[in-house]
Amino acid sequence: MNKTGTGGDLGIRQSNIPLPIGCEYTLSCYARASIAGTIAKLQVGETGYAWVTKEVTLTTEWVKYSYTFKTLYPTTSFIFGLATSRTGPAEFCGMKLEAGNKATDWSLSPWDVTSRLTKLEAAVKLEAGNKATDWSLSPWDVTSRLTKLEAAVIALGGTI
Question: Which residue, among 90, 97, 54, 45, has the nearest Cα to 72 in the 3D structure?
Fold first, then answer.
């Protein structure tokens, strides 16, 4: 993103995320600027309520920034961006909101893993002609699902 004037904010925003009140969360991202010293912000709050801003000084290298907070409202919004009085080009990536007080490395969410497994299972079923395989596992039972998929692929001669 590139902000050329000093009026208004420029950023990436996610609004109205329902989170339990009083729980601790960590907001994180990687960021860098074309000009070292550019000020960016990680901002948490909700429209109609107070916002809390953590300003960070960007470098020209990718650096991970994080901010830990406790939820105060039934929904929470956040912004990664350049502050009102700041200008300059900056890049942001790897944005993450997670429960707890530590910024962890990026990983697939359980929903992404489940979606990929479901697609792979469909491909294996199609190739196997829906032969006697019990696919009635919980979507969260990833290990059992992978074991069954492995067995089905081996039974098909190792290819799909």
Answer: 45
